[in-house]
Amino acid sequence: MKPLISCCFLFFFVSFAWSQFHFAIIQDPDGYTNVRKAPNSSSEVLVQVFENELFVVYDVVEKDWGMVSIFSNPYSMACQESSIEGYMHLSRIKKLDDVPQADKQNFSFDCSLSSFDPFKKRLSKSQEGWIIAINGRPFWGTDGGLPKSQVNGISYTINGESFQIPSIFFEDLFEFSERYWAHRQGDTYFVRQMHSDGAGGYELFWVLNKQGVQQRLIWRP
Question: How much is the pLDDT for 81?
Answer without folding.
Answer: 55
